[in-house]
Design brief:
Elements lengths: L9 H12 L3 H5 L15 H10 L1 H18 L4 H22 L9 H10 L4 H14 L3 H8 L3 H25 L7 H16 L2 E4 L2 E4 H15 L7
Antiparallel strand pairs: 1-2
Helix pairs in contact: 4-5, 4-6, 4-9, 4-11, 6-9, 10-11
Subcellular location: Membrane
InterPro entries: NCS2, Xan_ur_permease
Pfam family, one: Xan_ur_permease
């Protein structure tokens, strides 16, 4: 057999998959009961100045997610409880999480995609899910099991969920009466999609804005700068 064909040997591929992509050894090595690692914050002005511009990204994502959830569930969350209250909830939850060394608890677009896929609109489901996740964080083997999920599997899930949130966002624009065939709207939507999906990054010294944050800012600026089209 030629050397270049050896890589396509099914036996070699099977061995690589089992040994490299999926290993259950972390589950057997981990303990049943494990206390999560808590880290208390330290005051650092450099970190504060670095985080402030980054906070623009989750704020814009939060607003878009609330609009997407409204489109999926048919309930206007901008009116009740109001965008100011949902943002406040994000901020309080993130502050508490960061005080204990946890990740930010902002709204994530992939969760919106999951809600659209499962049609699980009841907020109580998310509440019980969060409580269950907190309890599971003290079970070491569950965390180890989740860590064994192969990266390609998670990548496939992200492709589906992020694709769905994009379609939901476009569908929201269409339902709101936005004509995407108009040049002004085409320019704004095109710049947002290319900059957000392409991962464009803007840096100025220590300041760095990229992806969703940069795309959102550019969208807002273009909406303010580009002149409104005349009604025909």
């Amino acid at each position: 057999m030629p050397r270049h064909q050896a890589a396509f040997d099914p036996g070699v591929l099977a061995n690589y998959t089992s040994s490299q992509l999926l290993s259950l050894k972390p589950i057997t090595d981990s303990a049943w009961f494990a206390i999560p690692h808590f880290t208390f914050p330290e005051w650092n002005w450099s970190a504060v100045l670095f985080i402030v511009p980054i906070a623009i990204a989750p704020a814009i994502e939060h607003f878009g997610d609330v609009l997407a959830i409204r489109s999926v569930t048919g309930k206007d969350y901008l009116e009740e409880p109001g965008i100011q209250n949902t943002l406040l909830g994000d901020g309080v939850a993130t502050s508490i999480a960061s005080f204990l060394g946890g990740p930010p608890n902002t709204t994530y677009s992939e969760v919106t995609g999951a809600v659209a896929l499962t049609k699980a609109f009841n907020p109580a489901i998310m509440t019980w899910t969060a409580l269950t996740a907190i309890l599971f964080s003290f079970v070491g083997k569950i965390g180890a099991f989740l860590a064994t999920i192969p990266t390609p599997v998670m990548g496939g899930i992200m492709i589906l969920l992020f694709g769905m949130i994009t379609v939901i966002g476009i569908n929201t624009l269409v339902k709101a009466g936005s004509d995407l065939s108009r040049p002004r709207n085409l320019v704004i939507v095109s710049v947002i999609l290319v900059c957000g999906i392409g991962g464009m990054k803007f840096t100025a010294g220590a300041l760095a804005i990229e992806k969703i944050g940069l795309a959102g800012i550019l969208g807002v600026l273009l909406n303010l700068i580009l002149p409104a089209e005349r009604e025909e």
